[in-house]
Design goal:
Helices cover 71% and strands 0% of the residues. The protein is built from 7 helices and no strands.
């Protein structure tokens, strides 16, 4: 009798973990872990940037340059971009104005922001500085 109980205990000790692992694996496999359907589009930062218009992407890039470096580098980048791609010329004043506003935001002073003014897109940078002030 004791021998039969030991044999049954050993059998359960081998079979029970296998059954628990399999049932746990099957339970986890059936849970919908993702809330959105698998065919829903997922936008990465690169795809989001690609969705921007060329002038909006340039403006974003130049404002980042202004914040990391200074307005002179951003205005030089704007001038080079318009020279490379003349289709950006109609947007040059808007971008320069945004750079002027970002410069005032960075320095907290219109005078300091205006000291970086360059003759890019006429006086649009200066008007952006004045507007932000």
């Amino acid at each position: 009798m004791i021998k039969a109980i030991r044999h049954l205990g050993r059998s359960l000790a081998i079979v029970l973990p296998v059954v628990l692992v399999l049932s746990g694996t099957l339970a986890v496999a059936n849970v919908p872990w993702v809330g959105a359907p698998a065919d829903a589009p997922v936008l990465t930062a690169a795809a989001e940037r690609a969705a921007l218009s060329p002038q909006a992407a340039l403006q974003e890039q130049l404002v980042t340059t202004l914040r990391r470096e200074d307005p002179t580098a951003a205005l030089t980048g704007l001038q080079e971009a318009v020279t490379r791609d003349p289709s950006l010329a109609p947007h040059c004043q808007d971008i320069a104005r945004a750079l002027g506003e970002a410069a005032v935001e960075k320095y907290g002073s219109a005078e300091r922001a205006q000291s970086h003014a360059r003759p890019v897109c006429d006086t649009a940078y200066a008007s952006g500085v004045a507007r932000a002030n």
